[in-house]
Amino acid sequence: MATKLDVDAPWNHSQSIDWDSETVQSWLNREAPHPDAQFLLTQGLQSVFSTEPREQSLLYTLAYIAAAGNATTRGTFERLIDVAGGAQEQRIVGGTQLLAIRLAERIGLSNIIFNAPVRNIELKDETYLVSSNNQSVIAKHVVVAMSPPLASRITYQPLLPAARDHLTQRMPMGSIGKAFAAYATPFWREAGLNGQVVSDTGAVRITFDSSPDDGSFGIMMGFIEADEMRRLDRLPEREITEEITKDLVRYFGPRAANVQNWVIQRWDLEQFSRGGPVAYAPPGVLTAYGTSLKSPHGRLHFAGTEASSFWVGFMDGAIRSGERVATEILMDL
User: What keywords would UniProt list here (predicted)?
Assistant: First the structure.
């Protein structure tokens, strides 16, 4: 089904309205009713979207799968969830923040305004006045590189087209967190275990070994997703670590209880994230408002991973959307 979609306009497919009229869960109930199939597909979907299958549109999900490739290779669900040869294969030594740090160094820190979240974008004659709480800049072009729900928190003057505003009202973020348990050593490697878990119970149901290659200390990372993340968002961190410790002991044995330090990251509670990893579309959104994801409004351009043709939801997609917007602006200069 995903192979039949135009990644730039999935809403143009002859069955788009039908596919956008149901959730992934309703499709699973009809096409894959066996409990084993439901378990595997649900776990895979949760790991990609941090949502429950009942929440998202079938069309949106198919379009997302189709986008997990490039102009010559159509995406597959396996590519999204696989480690070897898939989207989960690589990590950046030193952390992904190094991307932002290195880019900032190239741009020059003096050219970046920090601690100034944009509150208002106002078109004044032929330029835009972009304002934070205590300062403003004037620009000919403006790029809003944010998820749709966060972009909607900016005040635009004049108002954005109704379709764009309706889109941002209807695309929520997934619910996601990560738990990092630090150990003296990656003890699971001694037993020949790779640290990867897929479970149908627990607060943490998917884990990865995030230890350094030299094994100088151990880091077990676990995803907290969808309904489980929403449940844990209501709890203090102490109770969360107690639950996750029980999960890790169940997976890796009693030595997993000897956690030296915890890092619990809840993106749902972050002011400039409010969830993750991507804004998703419930039924009825793409066919009604999908064209507004990428369409500029005057010299106001929209980027971000949701506005990419390929690798939506990934840093790759965010970069691609930036390249697209840069081309739009260059053509107008």
Answer: FAD, Flavoprotein, Oxidoreductase
Tokens found for residue 219: 């880091």
Q: Is residue 330's pLDDT more than 90?
A: yes
Structure tokens that stand for 270 in this block:
């972050």
The mean predicted confidence, pLDDT, of the chain is 96
At the topology level of CATH, where does 176-269 sit? Polyamine Oxidase; Chain A, domain 2 (3.90.660)
The predicted structure's pLDDT at residue 291: 97
Looking at residue 121, its pLDDT comes to 99
Known binding-site positions for substrate: 223
Structure-token pair, residue 320: 């691609």
Q: Dig out the tokens for 108 from the structure.
A: 């020059």
| Banded pLDDT at 214 (limits 50, 70, 90) | very high
The residue whose two tokens read 């208002």 is 120
25-42, pLDDT tens digit by residue?
999 999 999 999 999 999
Q: In this structure, what is the dihedral angle of CA atoms 316, 180, 147, 105, given to the nearest 10 degrees?
A: -60
Structure tokens at 76: 């597959």
Enumerate the known binding-site residues.
Answer: 118, 223, 306
Query: Which distant-in-sequence residues (6+ apart) come within 8 Å of 115 by Cβ?
Result: none
Cα–Cα distance between 269 and 265 in angstroms, integer? 9
Contact in structure between 63 and 292 (CB atoms under 8 Å): no
Q: What is the rounded distance in angstroms from the CA atom of residue 58 to the CA atom of residue 175?
A: 19
CA distances from 137 to 113, 133, 333 (A): 10, 12, 19
With CA atoms as reference, report the closest residue to 4 among 60, 63, 47, 54.
63
Annotated binding site for FAD: 118, 306
Q: In the β-sheet with 218-225, what is the strand arrangement from edge to edge?
A: 197-198, 206-209, 218-225, 176-183, 261-266
- Around Cβ 88, how many Cβ atoms within 10 Å? 17
